[in-house]
Amino acid sequence: MKHLKLTLLAFSIIFATACKNGKKETEEVKDNTTTKEAPETTKIAIAPLTDSPAYADAKLMLDTPQSMTVAEAGEVDFNFTLENYVLGDQTDSPNAQKLANSGKGQHIHFILNNQPYSAHYEPNIKKEIPAGVHHLVAFLSRSYHESVKNDNSMVVRKLVVGENAQDSLGLDMEAPTLIYSRPKGTYVGKDTENLLLDFFVLNTELSETGHKVLATINGESFTISEWAPQVVTGLPMGEVTIKLQLVDAEGKVLPGPFNTVERKVTLKAE
After folding, report:
1. CA separation for the pair 52, 146 (Å, rounded)
2. Which of 108, 119, 153, 266 could bond to 148 as cystine, CB 3.0-4.6 Å?
3. Tens of pLDDT along 235-265?
């Protein structure tokens, strides 16, 4: 009888220990399976775009005076000529796969009063121009919408349209001027991964100690001290706000009707 009691006591101790250890292991497994690290938030970043052909000798020309006078508002013909550049060609660069790319190829960006550009794949362009005094910039664009940047790749004109045309913008054609180009519109799928940030600067040069472009993307600011295209990464899906400002060495916005510009684009997963 004594031996039976000792046996039952030993069995009870072993059973209790096993239950306790089993419970501890279960709790450890439960802790391991329920504890998850919070996903990392992607950070918006910009970096210079590389690997584009330079087209250093490409030319865009318009045989008109620097200040064009048009008798009345309406459709105006702009007959551009080009040298060393072919509209409609696909630009030979890996950037055509990296960035949103036009299937129609290389083209001209036509920008009136720093409004969103229209893309043109033929040199003869007809545009409705309202009465008033307007600022025109047109420049050569690669198939993935990066502007060609040389002394002859763009045309800048002052348009005086209609009788008694009013200069509501207060244009100074010789003043430092910022012209927005990209990003633009809606991006879907793979095109949301890398957005081209591109602009034109007129009558000035960017530098570390001089004029710069301040880019603010969804509230995050970046200073660009070289006139070069940038690639924006880490953007969230949905609406994205981009503001560009041409600033002096102290960070003050330079006077001019176009030197602060804000645009919105949309990113969609599919």
Report:
1. 9
2. 153
3. 999 999 999 999 999 999 999 999 999 999 9
Q: Which two tokens stand for residue 7?
A: 């046996």
| 228, two tokens | 């070069």
**By C-alpha distance, which of 202, 34, 191, 16 is closest to 99?**
191
pTM of this structure: 0.85
